[in-house]
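Friendly challenge for the regulars: who can give me the structure tokens for this chain first? No prize, just bragging rights.
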Amino acid sequence: MKNILILLSLATGLVSHASAAEKEPWEGPYKPLKGEYLVYSGTLGERQPPTRNDSKVSIRVEGKVAKDLFDAMHPDEKNKCTTEPGYRERNKDGVSCFYYPDSGYACYFGFDLRTGKSIGGASC
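First reply, four minutes later:
Bragging rights claimed.
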């Protein structure tokens, strides 16, 4: 009888441990964002109106989404666009995020609308 109680206790413990190990599925909900976009041709430094053969988009997001992206991109750039005190910058393959002490976080990315390829969305 004592052995049966021990086995029941072990079985109950295993079942509760197994169910505790199961995590709730992550829903991955979309979140709202604040941003702007620019459709152009040429380069960001010398942009022109979009044309039939050359059309790109630069997308700028700011606020919480920009902070979340900035925080996910480590480390800060050593060669920055400015030497303004408190300014921070992070870049990864065409995604550029900045922290401006006076206005907060902003991130830029872009796409070539003719090819669908990812391109940079910001320039110094």
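Strands lie at 34-42, 47-48, 56-62, 88-92, 95-100, 104-112, 118-119. The chain has one domain: 32-119. Your move, everyone else.
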